[in-house]
Structures are given as C-alpha cells and as structure tokens.
C-alpha cells in the first residue's frame, strides 16, 4: 500500500495573530539592525551633534527665565532696579545667541556627516554592484536598483541631517523648560504637561497598526518605479503593436494597488492626527493653564507672572511633540530605506577564490550541473532550470545548444562566464573549476556575445576596445572589418569618435556586429554566443553570420542556436529539454536518431520551404523573411 502523502504545510498560517506579531517583531529588529549598520559610519558625529544640541536646548530656557525675572523686577514695589533689568536683558540676548549658535553647529555637523554618508553608501553600492554575479542583474529590475541608489540613499538625508538633532531638541527643550516650571512651583509644572499623557496614550493606541500600512505603501512605490522603467524600456514595441492598453495594465495595477495602500495608510493617519492634535492645540493648552492657573493664583500659591512664564512654556509643547512624531515617522521611512540598502549590500557576491588558479587549456567540462533560480515575487519556490547536465566542449570546437524555449539553454551557457554558480556539479575550464579562477582571469578566457547587446555611451572606438583598452587603432579597425561593421562606422559623422547614443544610432543587427567586433578584439579563447538574429534583415543577417564565422575561428565556442540551419556544421549539437540533455551528437547522427532534434529539424526544414515558396510568390516582406 502506498504511503499516504503528507498534507503540505501552508507557507503562512493565515490570520494567526501570534505568528504575525513574532514576524513583525523580527522584522522590526532586522530593520533596527539594518539602520544601525547603515548609519554606523556617522554614529560618532551624530552623537556629537546631539550633545551640542543638548547645550542649545538648555539655552532655550533662558528667555523664559528672563521673562519671569523681568516681570518680578518690574512689578516689585518701589523704584525699578534698572541695573537688574539690563542684566536680565543681556542674559536673554546671550541665551538666544548661544541657542542659535549651538543649534547651527549641531545641524552643520549632521549635514556634513550626511554628505559623507551618502557618498560612502553610493560608493559601497556601486562597489557591491560590481561584485554581484551578472545573473543578479537579469533577475533584478533596473527600477529597484535605481530606487536603492537614488531614493533610498536620499531618504536617509532627513534622518541623519535633521531628525536626530531635531528630536533631541524637541524632547530636551521642553524638558529643560519644564524643570524650570517645577522650580517655580510643582503645581505649575504639572499644569503645563496636563494634556500630554492624554495625547501620548491616544496617539500610540490609534497609530499602533500604521507601520505595516506604511511598509505596504513603500513596497508599492518600488513596484510602480519598476513597472515605469520596464514600460519605458519597452515602449517602442508596445506602441508598434498597438498594445498600449495591455502594457499599461501592469503599471495601472501597480498604481491602483498603491492607491489602495495609500488610502489604507492616509485615512487612519489623518484620523489619528485630527483627534490627537486637538489634545495639544494652543487654545486647549491656554484654556487649561489659564483656567486652573487662575485658581492657583487666587489661592496665593503662585504669582501671576509665574503663571505667565509657565503658560508660555506649556505653549511650546505642541510644536515639540509634533517634531517628535515627525521624527518617529521619518525614522520608520528611513528604516525601510536602510533595510533595502542593507539587503542589497548583503546580496551574495560572486565568491572570489582565495587561491586562484589559472586554467591549463581551453576545453570546458560541465559535470552534473543543477541550477535553480532563487524564489522571487509570485514564484516562491524558485525555478529549476538545469537538472543534472553534463557536456564536454573539446578545445577549439563548436558546440551548439538547441532545445525548446525555456529548456535551459541560456542558463547553461551563462554558467561559463559565471552569471551564476550551479547549486551542485561543476563547470571546469582547462581542468579548473570556474569558481577557482579569479574573475579578471576568467574574463580573459571567456567572452560572450548575448542577445541583449549593451553599447555604452562612449565613442564607438572605446565600445569596441572595452575588453582590451590598449588595442591600437589598426587592431580596432581590423576587428570592425572582420565583424562587417567598419564601413558603417566610417559613415558616422565622426567615424570611430562618434559617441553611441549621441551621433551613432545603430540598428539591432549593427549593434550586434559592434559587439562581435568587441569580442573579436578581446580575443578570448572561449566564447559563449547567442546567435539570435531577430532584428536583422536578410542582408544584415548574412553579415552577422559572416562576422560570427570570423569570431568562431580557432576558439572553443558554445553557441545558443535559434535557427538550426546555421549550426549544421557544429562539432557537437546538444539537445536540451526541461533542463536535461536528451541527446547530443553531430547533425547527421541526430537526424538519423529520429529523436527530439530530428523532429525540430523536420519542422525547421518545412518552415524554410514554406518561406522560400512565399518569397517566390512575393507574399512576404523582408522583415518577415528575417524572422
Ligand atoms: N531570471 C530568472 N528567474 C527565474 N526563472 C528564470 C529566470 N531566467 C530563466 N528562468 C527560467 O528557467 C528556465 C530556463 O530558462 P532559459 O532562459 O535558460 O531557457 P532557454 O532555453 O534559454 O529559453 P529561450 O530559448 O526562450 O531563451 C525557464 O523555465 C525560465 O522560465
């Protein structure tokens, strides 16, 4: 009898308040730790600024003392003691000046600290991006990366430059002033803060669930940012195919979701603010202080001038409390930003070998490789792309990877230049595991020309000699000639000096030939090639094929083949299906085998014949031919 299949545990126990609380606590702890880690480089300076702000806050109380002392002197019976009046006036002026000076100093310290921190973080992030595996970039949207580098780093500004100093001022200035109130009379001290406990209790009770709402809102902003970048990147295709409505949908969905999250946060937040602000509003404080204060004066426990002094102090409390709550809010926002930065900084880097080795030869041996893409939004379990693949590439031979879409061709090919490392199994070049080869050494051995051609905003010449900056003009021209792009470059306004994107606008096929020239010049003995010619017209395609032909000579080549016609002479054809090698061999062997390749070949030939017939009848345009 078959064993009963255990019921899988649900990933999240829904609506379990205890689990939710534990999770929330763990997240809050992670955020605090992330924030502390990100802010560590400026900690000493922010503490120093807070100390300076303590002095400024202490000076805040001097004008209040001055007012009471002035009142006492002026209202004292007999002639006015002008000497004492002047003394008090100078004291007040001195107090105000000291407060302004210390407050300025504190903010200057934090602003300079913030400038340094932003620069350091951007450098750390850029450095990190340089050490992440190339595969990370294809998994992560450029919108999310931009948000980390720009918005998240900038979100820390208010926290570092303002919030900590302002919160210190907001807490300590009233405390110093209140101490003075209590010195005047303990009843006046209590009266000044009479409405604060009510405010604090109401606020914390009403705002207890808002943190989660704010996080949702933050995630929403990241999602909108990512969809905008994706939408803009693909806008030409979208417009051409009249799919504006569909393509908008992802953005609209993200925006709608954000609207809901925003309303979910702002609605309760406004309610909290409206109710709690009344409890610390100036009229209510004035009413309580003057009403009860009149009674204290009437009883003879305090003098009217003391009541005026303490009432003025009570009036600064609302501003102070609002500053504190803004600082708390900013801290939450900055914590979320810090967590994203910390997450990015904690992404696993491409492991750099401690004792790097140099490959002895240029054969490639892929042994029992398994590879699973990490889980991501909407795909919690990850995708197993390679399932025990073994392939050997003899030195100087051409190996073609074929197989249905999604069979793992790109994943396998990009393991050679370490876009990612396999979960198990190994990729060896010249007998050395690619993980034991220093990255710079590896890229001297392995070059790649992929579908997504990246030309940088620099001169065409610099684009071509990216992998070999010391190349001479002649070598650059030779590579461009071999890649069938030299003539086209000479037609540009400034020839090889033309800057890509400014004066040089290449078609897809031309850009591909520039990247082939780049690979030719880099002259790596091993080459990973994606021979997609999707954008090319027949003439351009023929040129690309010639360029690729030039590129393949004398190298160990792994080519991802999309059109079987171009790889019939490959030394080995590896057929992948669902992450496994289902057959391999030469073209004639595989066709004779009658397996997956044979059926792919049959439909390829049938397609080509149909295309030829259509061309003969004049029924297709040139771009259709290219497809
Ligand atoms: N970045 C990624 N994150 C998650 N899954 C991925 C990622 N890239 C590819 N996959 C999945 O891994 C599997 C293999 O994909 P891969 O791109 O290697 O196949 P392919 O044969 O090159 O496909 P195609 O011919 O369409 O380019 C597919 O199921 C694919 O959906």
From TrEMBL:
The keyword Disulfide bond does not apply. Residues 51-333 form the ABC transmembrane type-1 domain. GO terms for molecular function: ABC-type transporter activity; ATP binding; ATP hydrolysis activity; ATPase-coupled lipid transmembrane transporter activity. It comes from the Bacteria. Residues 1-20 are annotated as: Disordered. Residues 364-603 form the ABC transporter domain. Residues 9-20 have a biased composition (Basic and acidic residues). Gene3D superfamilies: ABC transporter type 1, transmembrane domain, P-loop containing nucleotide triphosphate hydrolases. InterPro entries: AAA+_ATPase (IPR003593), ABC1_TM_dom (IPR011527), ABC1_TM_sf (IPR036640), ABC_transporter-like_ATP-bd (IPR003439), ABC_transporter-like_CS (IPR017871), P-loop_NTPase (IPR027417), Type_1_exporter (IPR039421). It is a multi-pass membrane protein. It is found in: Cell inner membrane. GO terms for cellular component: plasma membrane. The chain crosses the membrane at residues 47-68, 88-113, 175-200, 220-241, 274-296, 308-328. Keywords: ATP-binding, Cell inner membrane, Cell membrane, Membrane, Nucleotide-binding, Translocase, Transmembrane, Transmembrane helix, Transport. Belongs to the ABC transporter superfamily. Siderophore-Fe(3+) uptake transporter (SIUT) (TC 3.A.1.21) family. This is ABC transporter. It comes from Gordonia alkanivorans CGMCC 6845. The lineage of its organism: Bacteria, Bacillati, Actinomycetota, Actinomycetes, Mycobacteriales.
